[in-house]
Amino acid sequence: MIIGVTPEGKKERVAIADGYRESKDSWVEVLLDLKSPGLQGAPRLAVGDGAMGLWAALAEVFPQTRHQRCRFHKAGNVLNALPQSQHGRAKADLQAIWMAATREEALIAFTHFINVYSAKYPKATEKLTRDRDELLAFYDFPAEHWQHVRTTNPIESTFATVRHRTTRTRNCVSRPTFLGLAFKLIESAEQSWLRIRGADKIAPLLQGIPFRNGIPVIDSTPVQQSLAA
After folding, report:
1. Per-domain residue ranges for the chain?
2. In angstroms, rounded to a whole number, what is the distance separating the alpha carbons of residues 124 and 113?
3. Hey, what's the signal peptide range on this chain (predicted)?
4. What is the SS3 assignment for 223?
């Protein structure tokens, strides 16, 4: 499933499909389906979990698109590689990264986490370091949008309803029927979606005005490009 944002700040479902274990080929098919009807430019930022198929497909179909990894999924992956006794402190240390006011402060918190845990728990720190740039991409976008682009919550919350309603019917209906049921459930969930914060910042973003630590760099010359939010 893919959710996009209109220039007015409204969230919209732009794609829903089934695929094989979130493979690259499955994602390529979805992205090409978006491109062929008239998606005029590459999305500025794609937010997702660690499913490698998505990122490989984006690199092929929309190589200009920046990648942002979901902080909740990443935190879960890191904590799974730590003993339970370390979870309380590790959660706080990870939160210091995600919630830093600037990229510079986030990098300091990032380095602190690596220094504290790398010697005893190298697998946990490896999971963090390999996606460092993708975890901090949001700093190059409007600060009002950070709460929306740091996680995949809009999709996760919608899918929670779908899973709840479809778990018991998964093996009892055909593929088209199952997809139709999921589509209708998601369509219904859309009615409660709210506009994103800072909708007025979408226009300068699409005009190519760069952002640093969430603030527009006014003295820069916009890079003219027609891109999707």
Report:
1. 2-70+151-207, 71-138
2. 10
3. none
4. coil
